[in-house]
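Supplementary notes (optional reading)

For those who missed the lab, this is the record we used. Protein: Inositol monophosphatase family protein. Length: 268 residues.
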Amino acid sequence: MHSAMMDEVAAIMQFAAAEAIVPKFQKLRDGQVEEKTPGEVVTVADREAERIISPRLSALLPGSRVVGEEATAETPSLMDGLDHGDVWLVDPLDGTANFVAGSSEVSMMIALMRQGQVVASWLLNPLSGQLAVAARGDGAFIDGAKVQTIPTSLPPEAWRGSVLTRFLPEALKNQVEAHSSRFGAIFPGAKCAGVDYPAVATGSQHFLMFWRLLPWDHAPGALLVEEAGGHVARLDGSEYRPSDQQPGLLIAQNGDVWETVKTLLLEG
């Protein structure tokens, strides 16, 4: 992925942040927040940001198409054919509930897929300006500095991880809770994948587990972690592809940590 496009996408996100998101932070008015599905909120900031981002991405790469979270909520068929051609996945504001609550744990996320494979990703905190980017084969970077996971010398009982339990089947949730004492700490996550994935890439957490796999939530961060040296796979060990929304994903600092977490958390 040539650096010019990486910079251009980042600039589009920064413009959308300045125009649509930053001015609304802690200033949302009545009528600017609504529940789009039970337990899922959307704000005027989400929608305005996506309206800014989508046409600019299409123009940047002729022949591509954009699959945005908010547009897909209105037109679910946009999810069809994710494995064909150049597809932009856009989450204009990840962590919307955090944003509504006045928390800065939010992210704007974009991934570019070619024939179903993620080739580049961008994660921008619109409030702090922190930018994480990754290009397949070229590494992962946060604010221009290369990020590389390192082998941990700590035993599993000192590891830190997050398991998003909201959508877990009850039996699996019980199993996770029963085995959580095998680790140093298991958190519920930041309620923002754009915060959780960089935590693994930078080493502040050892692992993550998700159940629901909407592609715009996970494709950007998965590539970031992989390019930093981490390991991302479905719970059965198979490859993660954003077009396949079968549930269950485990993310870890490296393959050894991944295998250990699977064994201690999900087995026996």
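If you only remember one thing from this example: DSSP finds eight helices and 14 strands in the chain.
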